[in-house]
Write a structure and sequence with these properties.
Elements (H helix, E strand, L loop, with lengths): L2 E9 L3 H8 L2 H7 L5 E9 L5 E8 L13 E12 L3 E8 L10 E10 L2 E11 L5 H22 L1
Amino acid sequence: MGRTDRASRVIAAPPATVYSALLDRESLEVWLPPDGMRGRVEQWDPRPGGGFRMVLTYLDPADSPGKTSDATDVVDVGFAALVPPERVVQRAVFEAEDPSYAGTMTMTWHLTATGEGTEVTVTATDVPPGIEQAVHEAGIASSLANLASYLEAAD
């Protein structure tokens, strides 16, 4: 059994709006890459059993060598469950030669309505040991901050 990482944030938007941003290709490219990265979705199939392939490129690869190449992390993400507007379950596999990044990580996005909007909690299970916990949790928190900025600016 692998490690579990998590982060959460309240976003000033209703659950249905947050859920839609989790399943919109263009939105994901904007908010999902954590600080210091940009993302490009290469394949897109937003349905249970479908998924996407994202290329994450480090803006400064000298500070953060990639898993797939010196400057990139490539991840294939499958949608294991889509439960609008409450939950999205993803299975993520990194393209990497280093066995410390091997395996399938499950990312569960829980959306709970609150008085202020939506509490989004991301739980990552079976995290590959090559991914440092503090760095991973900071990356998830960064993506959540980006999601909040993206949705709250749309209001």
